[in-house]
Amino acid sequence: MIAFIGIAILVWIIYRLTRDASQPHNYYFQRLNHVLREVGPARPLQFIDMDRLSDNAAVIKRHYPYPKQLRFVVKSLPCVPLLKWLLTTFQNDKLMIFDWHFLAKLLPQFPGVDFLFGKPMPVQALRQAVQQIQDNSPDALAQVQWLVDSHQRLLQYLAVAEEHSVRLRISIEIDVGMHRGGINNLASFRQVLSTIQQYSAYLQLSGLMGYDAHVAKVPHLWPVSAEAAMDKAHQKMLSQYRQYVHVLQVEFASLFHAALCFNSGGSPTYSLHKGNQVVNDVSLGSCLLQPTDFDLPHLVAHQPAWFIATPVLKKMSGLHIPFVEQLSNFIARYLPRWQHTYFIYGGYWRAQPCSPQGLYFNQLYGRSSNQEILTGSARTALEVDDYIFLRPSQSEAVMLEFPEVYIVRDSKVVEQWPILK
Fold first, then answer.
1. Which listed CATH number (3.10.520.10, 3.40.50.150, 3.30.1360.30, 3.20.20.10) goes with 78-284?
2. CA 152 to CA 114: how far, in whole Å?
3. Which residues form the Alanine racemase N-terminal domain (predicted)?
């Protein structure tokens, strides 16, 4: 029996290694390859397919029928024209920001838009940001919600407010199961609220923020479905959130009002929040572009709308690894994925090749951010100067690696939008 299992495993390994699943560019990428060969910058670029982005926006509107409650995450969409397009499309005026040095650049671009910090800032960052805002547009300070995760940080922020004679809008980070910091007990919550109440000349409560990314990753065992497990975890999260809101409403009634922001959600969980009576402000960003980290069952209606494209610089037969050339060439005869070697312009992004189908990074040769090596079979039909296409795993870091994003409609490049720097 053990021998049979061993043989079966060996057969499976040989099948996987020798199977050729390669395909040339499909019609969609073939058109893009042709366009980029004609009018592209002849270097690595990123692009957004606005037709697919519009479809994803429509999906969000279907799954979350309260578009005015949505808050778009700047770190996942770091492009001013893109953010403006989204605010117009959703008739919205809310952004979530994670980098204080972007704030001075964004405030003049988005008058009247509410900015909520998605993480607490070091006190020195707050001091510099407040000074910048006072120097450029003092009234814009009212657009910003500063996040505090502890009483100690609140006291630091209070000192800055007194130093600059300003009133800061304060959002309190609460732990609703994510366990990534924030207030995690009602006693600490009461202490923070009491200080805000006591120093109302310098501090104004703007709301709460309880991030719920853990809900999308809840483990489950048969016969419980992933959807049922997520719903149970979501209800538990809401129950915890509700406790904090109850304390605020009952014990600190002078701080409570209808315009308070009760934020939660994220790309994997936004659709769970429709209809609840607690959260009134839901963040999302990545699911609009759909990088690979968000290929989740409950986001199956979202299409990939953002890609990296880069030219093929060199094409070689076989695979030639230094010091083991004969061995690597011998193996290449029998492994379709090593039939051809392609060196591309740039590389080492947080991304995986998606077209042509059947391209692979070669760990034996090593990774490179200068001329990345990819291997594949002849069926990829790639030639020098053709473009290959990759899907990034996340947008919040990868988008910042490029100076601009190319905007594509109907497989044609129509604009270039600068990336926020």
1. 3.20.20.10
2. 25
3. 48-286
257 exposed, middle or buried (CB, 10 Å; 0-12, 13-18, 19+)? Answer: exposed
CA nearest 124: which of 157, 96, 98, 147? 157
Domain-by-domain residue ranges, the chain? 13-47+304-418, 78-284
Residue 374 to residues 334, 370, 384, Cα–Cα distance (Å):
17, 13, 13
CA 199 to chain CA centroid, Å, is: 36
Helices 226-251 and 186-198: crossing angle, nearest 10°? 40
Mean pLDDT across the chain: 92
Other Cβ atoms closer than 10 A to 398: 18
Backbone angles phi, psi at 364, to 5 degrees: -65, -40
The pLDDT assigned to 311 comes to 98
Amino acid identity of residue 333, one-letter, is R
| Tens-place pLDDT, residues 95-104 | 999 999 999 8
Cα 122–chain centre separation: 23
Which amino acid is it at 276?
N
Q: How many helices (H) and strands (E) does the chain have?
A: 11, 17
38 Cβ partners below 8 Å, 6+ apart?
Answer: none
- 3-state SS of 103-136 is HHHHHHHCCCCEEEECCCCCHHHHHHHHHHHHHH
Least confident of 14-28, 134-148, 265-279: 14-28
For domain 13-47+304-418, give the CATH number.
2.40.37.20
Q: What is the pLDDT of residues 181-219, one digit of tens each?
A: 999 999 999 999 999 999 999 999 999 999 999 988 888
Q: Rounded to whole angstroms, how far apart are CA atoms 37 and 49? A: 17
CA dist., res. 325 & res. 68, Å (int): 61
Question: For residue 159, is pLDDT > 80?
Answer: yes
Q: Which two tokens stand for residue 216?
A: 């999308």
- Name the burial class of residue 272, with classes exposed (0-12), middle (13-18) and buried (19+) by CB atoms within 10 angstroms of its CB: buried
